[in-house]
Design a protein that fits this description.
Length: 394
């Protein structure tokens, strides 16, 4: 790991100094009229280039010219939890912190959003926010888009084709042009843990019991082996090192749904560069790192409890208490790529998400009552045929 040239969370670029930008007022947390934004002109035709998924280049959507994304001279690094206490408090104001008005370099229109990157609502120019003091924690890493729109559509087509009992018209969804690519913020946490536990170890033993039953109208005495459990007090210590415990940094998407997109190839993460965001929406985090740590510790606790049970051994285990000490706690903010599709079916909106690196697809889908009914009828016919064969053989 290498250190950044600036303290973690410190803004970079022209907009880093509010005094240098009379339009900026990050302390108030209000919308920033005329705030600066980044765009990347095509070296061939002058249009705005966008990041090309699956590459290390930016591509012009008009002439196809590509220009490489210049790598930054640093590595992705973890940040000590102590660093968080040194960062300024997140700005608060009369409107949500971080809301700003982009000035489009193409048509000079203003687009107000709290996203880190977006498109001009008038000419669709790709806009990326310059890092500024409205962000308490700056992104450390990004897993760039690996699937383009066509790849995502193919993944969705396979998903819809494999859905049993889905309406036939659902397959047409894969032909839609309504895909929206977004980077979603996630926190990762590392920790070294030592846990002292108390519980019980259960050992099975068997006792021969005599019982009476009735067979052919007569009372018959029999024996059987009955299993019992003998419990012994147990205590001990387990340790584990956790690496990149992932927690969603946004409440805009249900956590249970995002968890289904795992695992993410976090080892493919690159040091954050705004070029990767060009052409995609990038959601700002609204889950604070302290709140994310609470969730991370809950996930660690599940693993630690399993470790305690394994250490107790025996046939059954009871864990009464676990006291965990954390050390070497680190964190970072990452941006992960997702393709979103929302479609309307039978008057209801359904959402599908595609992991833009692994092509994993998760989402909601309608069910065809006709297909379900046909399947039930077919099953009944099969059962009836089997019964008929059995009856004839008697």
């Amino acid at each position: 790991m290498t250190s950044n040239d600036q303290p973690y969370g410190a803004p970079t670029g022209p907009a880093a100094d509010p005094a240098a930008d009379p339009a900026a007022d990050p302390a108030a947390g209000a919308a920033v009229p005329g705030a600066a934004s980044l765009s990347y002109p095509c070296q061939a035709c002058g249009a705005t280039v966008e990041f090309a998924p699956g590459s290390d280049a930016m591509r012009c959507p008009y002439c196809g010219q590509e220009q490489a994304v210049t790598s930054v001279p640093r590595q992705v690094r973890e940040h000590s939890w102590d660093e968080l206490a040194m960062l300024p408090a997140k700005p608060r104001g009369s409107v949500p912190a971080g809301v700003r008005a982009y000035v489009c370099p193409g048509c000079a229109a203003h687009t107000e959003t709290d996203d880190l990157s977006a498109r001009c609502q008038f000419c669709a120019t790709a806009l990326v926010a310059e890092p500024d003091a409205t962000e308490r924690v700056a992104p450390e890493a990004v897993v760039p888009f690996g699937l383009d729109r066509n790849n995502a559509r193919e993944a969705l087509r396979k998903w819809t084709s494999s859905r049993w009992f889905a309406p036939s018209s659902l397959k047409k969804v894969s032909e839609a042009e309504t895909f929206k690519g977004s980077y979603l913020p996630h926190w990762t946490y590392d920790a070294e843990t030592v846990s002292h536990y108390r519980g019980q170890r259960g050992q099975y033993y068997y006792v021969t019991e005599t019982y009476t039953t009735t067979e052919n109208g007569e009372s018959v005495t029999k024996t059987r082996e009955v299993r019992h459990t003998r419990w012994f007090a147990a205590s001990g210590t387990v340790s584990r090192d956790f690496d990149d415990v992932l927690v969603a940094g946004t409440n805009h998407v249900a956590t249970k749904q995002l968890d289904k997109l795992t695992p993410w190839p976090l080892e493919e993460a690159k040091p954050f560069q705004p070029e990767y965001l060009a052409g995609f929406q990038t959601v700002r985090y609204d889950v604070e790192p302290e709140d994310g740590l609470v969730t991370a510790k809950e996930r660690m606790a599940d693993v630690i409890t399993r470790d305690c049970r394994s250490d107790i051994g025996g046939d059954e285990q009871r864990v009464h208490s676990v006291d965990t000490r954390y050390s070497g706690l680190t964190f970072k903010l990452m941006l992960l790529p997702v393709w979103f599709l929302t479609y309307l079916y039978a008057g209801k909106s359904w959402q599908v998400m595609v992991n833009a690196r692994t092509a994993e697809v998760i989402g909601e889908r309608p069910y065809s009552k006709g297909k379900i009914a046909a399947a039930v009828v077919a099953a009944l016919v099969v059962v009836a045929a089997i019964v008929l064969v059995v009856v004839r053989q008697r």
